[in-house]
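Handout, section 4.2: multi-component inputs.
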Amino acid sequence: MAALKNRVLHQTGHVLHTLPYRETSLIIEAFTREHGRVALMAKGARRPHSSLRGVIMEFLPLEFSWSGQGELKTLTHCEWLGGQALLRGRALMFAYYMNELLLRLLPREDAHPALFDHYAATLAALSIQADAADEVLLRRFEHALLRELGYGLHIEHCADSDESIQPVRHYHYEIERGLIHADLRQGAEDGRLYISGRTLIALQADDYSEAETRQQSKQLMRMLLNHYLNGQPLQARRVFKELQEL
Amino acid sequence: MSAPSSLEALIEALRCLPGVGPKSAQRMAYYLLQRDRQGAARLGQALTHSLQVLRNCARCNNYTEDEVCERCQSPRRDATQLCVVESPADLNMMEQTHVYQGLYFCLMGRIAPLDGVGPRELKLDRLLDRACDGVVKEVILATNFTNEGEATAHYLGELLRARGLSVSRIARGLPVGSELEHTDAGTIAQALVERRPL
Ligand SMILES: [Zn+2]
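Output:
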C-alpha cells in the first residue's frame, strides 16, 4: 500500500527546464496543475533511442506520472497531449522568460491551478503569435504571478490614506508599502518610480490598451520582480536584450 | 584511513566528465589503475598531446591542428554555401550524408537562455564575420529541432538575412522509411504544420 500511496498519475503539466543527470538521465523541473512545481528524474531519458526523447520538451502540454516521496520523484510516464504547435522566434524568448520566473519564484510542491491555467493559455497564445508575440501577454503573466504568490500589488488605494486612486494625479510606488501621493512640482527624484492614476486604474483591470500603461506597468513589474528576485538578474532577459542588440 | 593524495587528485579530475559523480569517478580510477594501466597511460598522453596541438579552426571553429582545417582549405568544397551546426558530432553526421559539398561553421553550443548561454557566450560575432566574407551566398541552419536549436536558428536567420545573405533551415519531417502508425504524435503534428505544396 505504501508504494501505491506515493504514486501520482496523469498530471497535466509543462517542462520548465531540464538538467542532465548522471550518464543517461535527466532531471525535469515540471510545473503541474495540481501539484505545482515538481522535480522529476527521468531515468535513461538521454539514451539515443529513449522514447522520452522528443516528448520531454518545454512549452508543450504534457501529462506526467511519477512515484516517490522525497523532493526528487521518479518519472514513470510522460505523454504528449498535443493541440499546440511548437513556439517560434520572439515567442520562444518570451516563454523562456516565463519559465525562468516560475523556476525562480515558485516554491516546490505548492499548487497554483489558476496560475497554471494562465501560463498554459499564454503559451497557447504565443504558439499562434510566433514572431509577432505581444509583450502585453508578459505583463498579464507577471501580474498573475505576483497575485498568486501573495505579493499583492496594492494599487487600489493610497498607502497612507484610504483615498481611492485619482486618474489625474501621480503616485510614487514604494515596495511593500504601496502608493504614495507624488508631488511632481518638486521634480522627480533619482530612482523613484512615478505612475499616473490613469495607469493604476487600467492596471487594476489588466487593461494595457494605452501606451502609457504598457510603459509604466513594465517599469513597475520590473521593479517588483527585481525585489522578489533579490536583485539577481534574469538570464532570459539578458540573452533576449543581447540578441536584439546584435 | 584516507586515500593517497594522488589517487584523490585522479578521482577529482575524472569528475570533470559530464554525468560523472564521486562514485563513478572512483570506479573509473580503480579500473584504470588495476585493470588497464596501459590504457591509462595512453589516455594520459592523448589528453596532454591533444590539448597541446588541437585548436579551433579560424574559419569553421571545429577542432584542427592547423590555423585553418583541411576541409576549409579544400578547393573541392563549395565556398558559397555555409552550414551552421551546433557541435562537431552534428558536423560529422552532415558529412556522412555525402549530399553536402559546402563549408561549415560549428557553434560549439546553442542559445540556452536558462543556462545563461547567449550571443556573447556563443561568440556569434565570429560566425557573422565568417558568413560575411563576401564569398558565402547561402547559409544553411542545421541546429537541432529543440526549443534551444530553434531559438538559435531564428535569431541567426534574422541576423544573416539583415546582412544580405540567403538563409535556409534544414527541413523537419518523418524519418525516412517510417510509417505514420509507428511515429510519435509530436513529429506528425509538426510535419502537418510544416506541410508543403505538391
Ligand atoms: Zn575549418
